[in-house]
Write a structure and sequence with these properties.
The complex is a heterodimer of chains A (267) and B (357). Chain A has 267 residues and is an alpha/beta fold. Chain A folds into two domains: 177 residues, 3-Layer(aba) Sandwich (Rossmann fold), CATH 3.40.50.300; 78 residues, no CATH class. Chain A is built from eleven helices and ten strands. Chain A has a six-stranded mixed sheet with strand order 6-7-8-3-9-10, sandwiched between helices. In chain A, strands 2-1-4-5 form a four-stranded antiparallel sheet. The longest helix of chain A is centred in the middle third of the chain and has 18 residues. Chain A is globular and about 60 Å long. The relative contact order of chain B is 0.15. In chain B, helix 4 runs antiparallel to helix 5, helix 5 crosses helix 11 and helix 8 packs antiparallel against helix 11. In chain B, strand 2 and strand 3 form a beta hairpin. The chains are: A alpha/beta (267), B mainly alpha (357). Chains A and B meet through helix 3, helix 4, helix 5 and helix 6 of A and helix 1, helix 8, helix 9, helix 10 and helix 11 of B.
Chain lengths: 267, 357
Amino acid sequence: MTNRQTAISTSEGAILECRGIERRFGGIVAVTGVDLVIQPQEIFGLVGPNGSGKTTLTNAITGFYPPNVGTIRLAGEDITGTAPHKVAKLGVARTFQNLALFNGMSVLDNILLGRHIHMNPGIFHTAFYWLTAKREEIENRKIVEEVIEFLQLESIRHELVDGLPIGLKKRVELARALVAEPQMLILDEPMAGMNQEEKGYMSRFILDARAERGVSVLLIEHHMDVIIGICDRMLALNYGEMIASGIPKEVVKDPRVIEAYVGGSHG
Amino acid sequence: MFYRLSGVHHANYVSDSRIFKVPADRNLAIFVFLFGLAAPFLLPSLYLNSYMLPWLIWTAAALGLNLVTGWAGQLHLGYAAVMAVGAYSAIHAARFGVPWEFALIIGGLASSVIGSLFAFAALRVKGLYLALTTLAMQFVMDWVLTHSPAISGGSHASLQSPTLALLGQDITSDTGYYYVAFGWCLLVTIFMLNLKRTGLGRALVAVREKDFAAAILGVNSFYYKILAFAASSFIAGVSGALLVATFFFLAAPEQFSVAVSIQVLAMVIVGGLGSIIGSYLGVALILLVPGLVNGIVAGGSQSLGMQINVETLAHIPNAVYGALIVIILLIEPLGLGKLYGNIRDYLMVWPFDQLRK
């Protein structure tokens, strides 16, 4: 496979490096032989039809379903099979396809939870709030407020997340991921169900997040216009295998990608 | 009305992270605090001792259960057993000659250790299965208490509590007992109010709501579940010890039976999961309403000249109190705390409630 070479590229200084990832569920092979290298400050697209293994791959990276075969390195450090909460501490943040905000909490509290890994919550901090926790809470609040301003969430910060429209919920989730100050940001279909205008906003936020905060992004999307518009490189999966990778404009012309998405248009 | 938001501005984050952001809330809290402080001079000692004191101690205990059930979302049906561990450890320590201050802490820590064992069950099972597991542990505790004379105090299975003494002062008066209960309830309440605005509270809610999403934010749900059980058990242990030291004066296994576990859970659920004021109201309803209804029924029947036999008289309060619980939960499944919140939200915009979102 010649295309594979471009996806592998050089692993020197890569922020995320996956080699030969395979994940099986019983007899079903969800992902096999996937190589993926993401360079610092790169926006990397991951596409594929439903069930092609995109989410399984992100779950392998974030530790929910450790790969059966293969290694995952974050900034050179082997994180294969590390528990999700430890992966988070190492600097990986993600959003979920089906949203995973905490209902019953305000937007502000949800985003503050993103600061968890930078805080030191405990019984004594809570009991003696005025001695220790107060300063910590205020300091982290300042950082959260920067992101709230960045994502234009000021007007809803004290509202409960339960009743927000989906576009805003996705934005709150992005804010929660960003305040963790991750090295690697994994966005699982951040624009699902959005209209053209909302998609435009979200794309702009992702580009700005890279420009201002220097994050690397792994972006899973079905909207090809977004992938072509903002991704530096991309990888296409089908039935858990890599079918094409490289510069988005070229990958989307690949006959195998077209076949996987629309089913043999080159007939 | 009353709870007015206009003119309340928070110009910095310190002010925005206050416990009571609305002046009316703060004033109400100060009023309740002052009333609690002055209660011994306002109320006859009978009311003070048989209503106010148990109310405060059970509220502290219910807040502890609320921490683990309301915040961390773990059903707990063995809470009375954890209280028993604290009560018996503290009293044995005090009888052994340990000063009461340390005896209470020993009781709390012993409860923490045993209570954390419950947490290990919570890490494996959830929901109804956890309820059943904790219930089983309650029965084990009951059995151990009734079958080991060394713990429960001989053939009568009762253990005399030595005279309570704090900071070198023997506490023997009703007023003294009341202030001990008041102080403990105040401490627990402040802890819970702080929990609402710190990372620990947020992490617990995260574990309750979506543990996978909590994990990806770096929240170790294993650790926080144990922490929730340990903290709540500490509160349970000290509350149990104080209950015996200031109210029962004699520890007996049936004070911490499975029925009591269910009663505390009822207090928390009727009051409202995750609501602090709800715990106060829930305890009041479960603890005080039966007596109140009893008084009303007895007084009413007497003044109307009706002859109600003793058995009916004993059943009516139970029926009324059961019906009250059902009615309250039907009106507002989130309990009395939410009911209070609804009234407060309504008053906040009254008379301009058409402007409400």
